[in-house]
Amino acid sequence: MTQHAVESSDTARSEAVSDALSDPFTPPAGSALWRKNFLLGAATASYQIEGAVSEDGRLPSIWDTFSATPGKVLHGDTGAVACDHYHRWESDIELLTSLNFEAYRLSIAWPRVMDEAGRPNRKGVDFYKRLLGKLKDNGVQTFVTLYHWDLPQHLEDRGGWLNRDTAYRFADYADLMSRELGGHVDAWMTLNEPWCSAFLGYGNGHHAPGLANTRYATQAMHHLLLAHGLATAVLRENDPASKKGIVANVGKSSANSLSAEDKRAAHLFEVQHNAWILDPLLKGEYPRDLWSLWPEAEPLVLDGDMRTIHAPLDFLGINYYFRTNVQSDGAHGYTEVPLAGVERTQMGWEVYPEGLRDLLIGFHRNYPALPPIYITENGMASDDRVSDGRVDDAQRIAFLKRHLAAVDQAIAEGVDVRGYFVWSLLDNFEWAFGYERRFGVVHVDYRTQQRTVKRSAQLIAKFLQERASRA
Ligand code: IFM
Question: Which residue ranges are recorded for the region named Disordered (predicted)?
């Protein structure tokens, strides 16, 4: 190479760096996010993107039933077609790799891969084999969730998560999947957000199966956590080389006043959202304060259950979205008091990145058994529109940058965070809000199934390319 060529490639490189540093997404120099071993990926979930709900032997799930029930989902939307990913998976994975994502978090639809008798549905299993194979061929790390809420309806008909037997059926499902897909998976996650399955599904009825009773919620949670513990042992046995974890959605609260009652309300909010799941997993016991919030709602716990639930984890997945301001309800609980004048997303959720930092630091200090953490979901919904072939999602770009900075600050405080997955790769079926709320870094036109890369994804791709090019 001539001297001139060296100089001009140096100039080009420093221009690229300064351009990268001045764009509205790229992390500052010195940030832990520049380290190549900090994994950056995108996440999705089966029911939210796949569609093809009656194809190739897939059985109905509780979300097929729930979304077909009038009044349960905005505009009567269902996951019947969603992003048609079951048919477009190859081009979707090509899109993911063209955006330079290093990891992909997906979930398996239990009703697609197993029949009522517990036998494999070959066509369903093969779908995930092909998908994971293509990801591996492209050097993408695979993070696979076994349960992202699409419980087979035939199990719900026998009591769903209120029936202890469902935990054992889940372990059978984990056994089948790890025997079939072991070697294709870098990290298994047993459950996504058991809080949502238990509380929204059985406690207030906003999600499938739509039951509303606090005692149901606590019993469902116990069986979900038991299912996690049983499945983790099976995964360890069948697929020792992979990592095993679970994903918890965590909530940050603030007290509406300095009164002792409101401070207690804020504490109880975090007990209900975080400690309800994290204490059993990381301490082997339920938090006692939960029973002051919900007297007489203690679940039936059998001998040995807490030991099973408290099995060691290789990592903990954390999903974080927003903060909730609360005050005492005058009895033993809390009520929400929305803060005025704060930035909110299309979901109405407050944008509060400091909450992610503070929760991570708090977990690091309070749980000696805390394993390494991956942020398995973070992102926001906005009313994104395509104009001249582009989507300028400026609010999302700032959101992602600020939340990544919050993760960076937590790392600087000693928290072992290994990676971050943006929710979501694609706009998709946002549960009770149907297709109206758009979380993707790629826009989906549901009429044509046309994908349009949003500016957020372009900037992430640019950063990842720059990072990869640094020796
Ligand atoms: O879309 C959901 C996802 O399925 C679970 N975590 C929260 C996301 C946004 O609501």
Answer: 1-22
DSSP string, 421-470: EEE-SB----GGGTTTS---SEEEETTTTEEEE-HHHHHHHHHHHHHHH-
- Which CATH number belongs to the domain containing residue 171 in this structure? 3.20.20.80
- Pick the atom of ligand 1 nearest to 45's CA: 4
pLDDT in tens, 343-365: 999 999 999 999 999 999 999 99
Task: Supply the range of the domain harboring residue 85.
Answer: 3-470
429 C-alpha to ligand 1 centroid (Å) = 9
Residue closest via CA to ligand 1's atom 2 equals 430
Could you give the CA distance from residue 46 to residue 82 in angstroms, rounded to a whole number?
Answer: 10
Residue 264 has pLDDT above 60, yes or no: yes
Name the 3-class secondary structure at 287: coil
Predicted local confidence at residue 34, as pLDDT: 96
| Catalytic residue flag (residue 193) | yes
Mean pLDDT of 63-68: 98
- Catalytic-role residue among 193, 270, 350, 466: 193
Give the chain's domain count.
1
* Cα–Cα dist 401/320, whole Å: 14
Residues with CB under 6 A from ligand 1: 45, 48, 193, 249, 319, 377, 423, 430, 439
**Range of weakest confidence among 2-11, 36-45, 188-197, 220-229:** 2-11
Rounded Cα gap, residues 456 and 463, in angstroms: 11
Going by C-alpha positions, the residue among 353, 390, 459, 471 that lies closest to residue 27 is 459
Residue 471 pLDDT level (bands cut at 50, 70, 90):
low
pTM above 0.90, yes or no: yes
